[in-house]
Amino acid sequence: MKYKKLILLLFISLLTSSVFAQNYWLSAYSPTNLNLKKSSFEDSLTGWVCGDSGLVIHTTNGGQNWVTQNTKTKVFLHDIFFLNKRLGWALGWNIYNPQPPYGTLILKTTNGGVNWDTTTFPIENIFIRKVYFQDSLYGFFGGNVKNILRTTNGGINWLDVEIDSLVTMYFPIINFSFYNNNYGYALGGVMDIAGMIWRTTNRGVRWTPFIVSPEPNMDMMFFDSLRILGFGGDFEYGPSIITTTNSGETWRYTSLELFGLPTVLTFRNQSDGWGSLGYTQTFLLTQDSGKTYRQIETPDSAVINDIVFPDRMHGFAVGESGKILKFNSATVNIENQNSVFTKNFELKQNYPNPFNPNTTIEYEISSNSFVILKVYDVTGKEVKTLQNGFKAQGKYKLHFGFDFLPSGVYFYTIAVRDLTGKSNGFFTQTKKMLLIK
After folding, report:
1. Smaller CB count within 10 Å for the chain: N or C?
2. First vs last Cα of the chain: how many Å apart?
3. Are 186 and 201 in contact (CB under 8 A)?
4. What are 406-426's pLDDT values in tens digits?
5. Cα separation, 43 vs 249, whole angstroms
6. pLDDT at 4 (0 to 100)
């Protein structure tokens, strides 16, 4: 009997330390412990990653080895973009250096990063966060104040674009996404004010702004010229999506009611998209072209800032403390099997909500499972574990008092692992609740 208890304890320990994302993503070699911000891959073998202290690392063998390139700067690099294996750009901000000018440093290479040349954007206090080129001459900058700029000569000169009048027309740009050279979008906005998109149909000469959400938009996926999905949100309300089926004439906003700070959403193919929810140490996964989502813990509790897929079988994720993950292509064949399990449990909205100080949380599982139910504050700090252990198939109703907590927004997350052998990972769902005293 004693040995059976020991085996059960070891099994539960393995369950709580194992996460589903470790099947999909594998920790890879990293040459640094500095924070990594953005990546750019030309193919499954050749890529660059930028980050803290002027860092750019380069691989030519799919991340087996990395070479640190000499950028000759120590500022934090916020973005990197390579048009091909030779021509690339990176952006850094001079904010804390006691020596002016304060603003954006533009790094450019014409030999794959062997040498980087640095220039300072000619206007001070302009902070550019996104660089995108269609070819070696025609490109765009996105940032604040002068939020969209265009070049036709490889960045020698930068031109203002025409933007249709709207009170929020000059809100910050976070990203660009183009369907073809003429038709594309800029994405951005200001937290707690408005989430924006800017549409162009004439190669970025003129842009039309739209307010489409309450929080900033950060990434976009074109399924075709008509069907588009945008991704955004903030740390308080979590991730959200915007969708259109008519080339952006109308948009639908949907909050995913999950916990986390969205940073990126990248699709491996037409159906399989991976997002990062930042400091919550979780991925966001959709396997049905954005119709449904689930939240999955990252390997080694990694905080991921960027995800890229050079092709449908290869992917890289980079983040804080030098973390690099590689997509495990061996899991591609088990996607459909694993997605079925997400329908086999349900976490319901607490009631009453708002509440003071007592509330009820209900959930249902359709098979014997290991269940973890926890409460977090808006910073991601765990404030209470409500459940942690084996539960038989059925419906559960939990009554709890939160008189020890101050008023505010809180999130409760359930992690469920089936114990019948139907799947081998945790599946999670998160909902928001409001405590008012």
Report:
1. N
2. 49
3. no
4. 998 888 888 887 776 555 456
5. 34
6. 40
Rg (the chain; Cα; Å): 23
250: tokens are: 């109308």
Query: What per-residue string of b and e applies to 187-207 under the rule 16 or more CB within 10 Å gives b?
Result: bbbeeeebbbbbbbeebbeeb
Residue ranges of the chain whose pLDDT lies below 50: 1-22, 333-342, 424
> Which tokens belong to 108?
């450019």
The two structure tokens encoding residue 221: 């996926």
Structure tokens at 201: 């149909």
pLDDT for res 331? 65
Torsion sign, CA atoms 232, 237, 243, 249 = negative
Cis peptide bond N-terminal to 172, omega within 30: no
pLDDT tens digits for range 72-102? 999 999 999 999 999 999 999 988 766 777 8
Q: What is the DSSP letter of 76?
A: P
- Using CA atoms, how far apart are residues 342 and 288, in angstroms rounded to an integer? 12
Q: Match 């927004």 to its residue by tokens.
A: 409
Report the alpha-carbon angle 95-131-211, nearest 5.
Answer: 90
Distance CA 188, CA 171 (A): 7
Nearest to 414 by CA among 372, 376, 370, 351: 372
Q: Which two tokens stand for residue 390?
A: 């084996």
Strand, helix or coil for residue 53: helix
